[in-house]
Design a protein that fits this description.
Layout lengths: L1 E5 L4 H12 L3 E6 L2 H7 L5 E4 L8 H8 L4 E4 L12 H19 L3 E5 L11 H14 L5 E6 L2 E2 L6 H10 L3 E4 L5 E2 L2 E2 H13 L6 E5 L5 E2 H11 L7 E4 L1 H14 L6 H9 L7 H9 L6 H7 L10
Parallel strand pairs: 1-2, 1-4, 2-3, 4-5, 5-6, 6-11, 7-10, 8-13
Antiparallel strand pairs: 9-12
Helix pairs in contact: 1-7, 3-4, 4-5, 6-8
Length: 308
């Protein structure tokens, strides 16, 4: 298939790019810095320079998607800034892209959202992602909205980067009791769901939570990650939620590390699917997800500390 992909230089997008190329698809990617992407993926047919801060008109997207069989939007930022307009990137630009897809009668449109893109959490990340979901669901298209939980991969970004940082400290800091719940999903399973969404007839007008088979509390994830990284066991300490929130605001102010207010709010909110999420993944997307231990075994660090 001829697939048009946004966000291909990002954490999830780079893995989707690799999976699409491996599966034999022709990929055209839209990123801000195409020269960087082409170095990473010389198999790309084309890479277009697109800034989703400003690409908020269907006229901008129409020439780019001409002749495409499918469009996948996985562009995103965890938190907005002076240079990154989160509402443009997550909502207005995707809405313009979906409008162009509707006019061009693109065969399939896939939106990569997040399991915690709920109105109740109230972050700009969640609300803007949800707005894009709602826009796509209103279109006369064959659409799929994928809402992955926290995604584990050899690389890390956002929430996974935060967890790895916390697990590596001399003592393991817990936000409150460390009982926030996550239904971790492995990157290989997410990319499989994406690939199957392109071809499976059942994956049409579907909103699907993409989750793993186990629910963990944060404290247990941190213990596993610490052991995986080869570090000795460390004591855990409970830090009051109010103090962590104050620290995260300072992190926002000075752009220091992964402990941002958005990451913290989404950690506290949790990332757990509905009761039928696994059944729907198997039935609709043809995916039986692997376990967290499967991931850890398959990505053991080498002697340098890097993960294979």
């Amino acid at each position: 298939m001829k697939v048009f992909l946004t966000g291909a230089n990002g954490f999830i997008g780079s893995y989707i790019t690799a999976a699409l190329l491996w599966d034999g698809h022709s990929v055209t990617a839209a990123v801000r810095k195409p020269e960087e992407l082409l170095k990473r993926f010389p198999g790309l047919k084309a890479a277009k320079a697109v800034d989703m801060n400003t690409a908020t008109s269907a006229d901008h997207w129409s020439p780019l998607i001409r002749g495409m069989d499918a469009v996948i939007n996985c562009a995103g930022v965890l938190q907005g800034s002076a240079k990154q307009n989160i509402w443009n990137i997550h909502h207005l630009s995707p809405a313009a892209l979906f409008e162009a897809c509707e006019k061009a009668r693109v065969e399939k449109v896939i939106q990569i959202s997040a399991i915690s893109a709920d109105r109740e959490i109230g972050t700009a990340y969640a609300l803007s992602k949800l707005a894009a979901e709602d826009d796509l669901r209103s279109r006369k298209l064959k659409w799929v909205v994928l809402r992955p939980s926290l995604v584990m991969a050899a690389n890390a970004y956002g929430g996974t980067a935060l967890l790895r940082k916390l697990a590596s400290l001399p003592v393991i800091p817990l936000v409150g009791k460390g009982d926030q719940k996550f239904q971790l999903v492995m990157m290989d399973d997410l990319t499989k769901v994406v690939l199957n969404s392109l071809i499976r007839p059942k994956m049409n007008k579907v909103t699907l939570e993409v989750v793993g088979p186990e629910v963990f509390e944060v404290k247990d994830i941190l213990i596993k990650l610490r052991a995986w990284s080869g570090k000795k066991p460390a004591p855990a300490i409970s830090i009051p939620v109010g103090l962590v929130k104050m620290t995260s605001r300072l992190t926002d102010l000075f752009s220091l590390g992964p402990m941002r207010t958005t990451a913290l709010k989404h950690m506290i909110y949790g990332n757990v699917g509905k009761q039928d999420a696994l059944q729907r993944m198997r039935h609709l997307a043809g995916c039986k997800p692997g376990t967290f231990d499967d991931f850890l075994k398959a990505n053991q660090p080498d002697n340098s500390g890097r993960h294979r």
